[in-house]
Amino acid sequence: MSILSKAFALLLAVWAANAFAHVTSTGVASLDVDRGKLSYRIVLTLADADALYVPFLMRRDPRVIEDIRSYARFAIDGEACVPTDAAIRNEGTAKIALTMELSCPKSVGALRMRDDWPEVLGAHFQTVLTVNVAGRVAGQFALVEDRREVVLPLNAPVAVGWLYFIRLGAEHILSGPDHLLFLLALLALSRDAWQIVKIVTGFTVAHSLTLSLATMGWVDVPSRVVEPLIAASIVWVAVENLVAPSSAGRRWLVASIFGLVHGLGFAGGLMELGLPREALVRALVGFNLGVELGQLAFVAVAMPAVVLLAKPQRFLRLLRALSAIAAAM
């Protein structure tokens, strides 16, 4: 059994034990600034929201309107913006959109944004916020557990740079156990560096292709189709580890085929930012680079560590058991 197989089994054991220990849900928000008027919108996925709060969202409870006013607060140049209207709307069957209009006493200066949604949506809730000033992207922020407030100068909007998209791509791959589990399952039967290169290259080229096509709007596959296919790819590879371990030689082909599906999954994270057309090329290149750097960092850091811990005894049975667990998950 190869060293990478041992690494896969041990990493899978750790992932299985911790997969549900730190669940992070994400709201995708936008803020449109037009002089002293603000339009705020956040889309929540019901399946990710705190179970205790979902009934309030689904029946459009009036208390949610108050929550919009209380947990998303804005001020310009030190003076608070006042909510003038708020609403709750269904976004299909699985999502809810919360909107709010605000009027601000001032229109120039530092825009201060405060996000306290974790108080009702769970401690590990995070908001990805895009701020548009006069119809153009002026800044994008990840409001996380230890960073609930950000400031953006309205008189000198910050352009969305390469580093943001590189970081976004790296975070997307490293925070997605499905993609990492698939990658590890693919590499589990690899026996030399050349096989690893072929697998990683096939996966990279394939997901870069569909990521680009989907983000540019040339391919549109609903998430209700993409997400089950990503799960199916993990099942396929895990079962193949069990019943056909001799198939390692064609793993690069499997990686390429399923990489097309995973690229559509990556595109979901990028498309939800609502970027203007002129920002897409920078976003695509930076996001792809971030995904690749995240993958390489994960393999480079995790593999040597688990190889040192892996024990050859009882390993074949362990690999089979953990591959079955991966397929079940």
Provide structural commentary.
The structure is a single chain. The chain is an alpha+beta fold and 329 residues long. Helix content is 51%, strand content 22%.
Task: Give short descriptive properties of this protein.
329 residues, alpha+beta, six-stranded mixed sheet, four-stranded antiparallel sheet, elongated
Summarize this entry quickly.
With 329 residues, the protein is of the alpha+beta class. Helix content is 51%, strand content 22%. It has helices spanning 3-18, 54-58, 62-71, 118-121, 162-174, 177-187, 193-215, 223-243, 251-271, 280-309, 315-328; strands at residues 26-34, 37-45, 72-76, 79-80, 82-91, 95-103, 110-115, 126-133, 136-143, 149-153.
How are the secondary structure elements laid out?
Elements: H1 3-18, E1 26-34, E2 37-45, H2 54-58, H3 62-71, E3 72-76, E4 79-80, E5 82-91, E6 95-103, E7 110-115, H4 118-121, E8 126-133, E9 136-143, E10 149-153, H5 162-174, H6 177-187, H7 193-215, H8 223-243, H9 251-271, H10 280-309, H11 315-328
Parallel strand pairs: 1-8
Antiparallel strand pairs: 1-2, 2-6, 3-4, 3-7, 5-6, 7-10, 8-9
Helix-strand pattern, N to C? HEEHHEEEEEHEEEHHHHHHH
First and last CA, distance: 24 Å
Report on the biggest sheet: 6 strands, mixed
Helix percentage range: 40-55%
Radius of gyration from the alpha-carbon trace, in angstroms: 22 Å
Order of strands across the main sheet: 5-6-2-1-8-9
What is the residue-averaged pLDDT? 77
Briefly note the structural class of the backbone: alpha+beta
- Give unreliable regions as ranges: 8-23
* Total DSSP helices: 11
Number of strand segments: 10
Strand content: 15-25%
Can you tell me the overall shape?
Answer: elongated
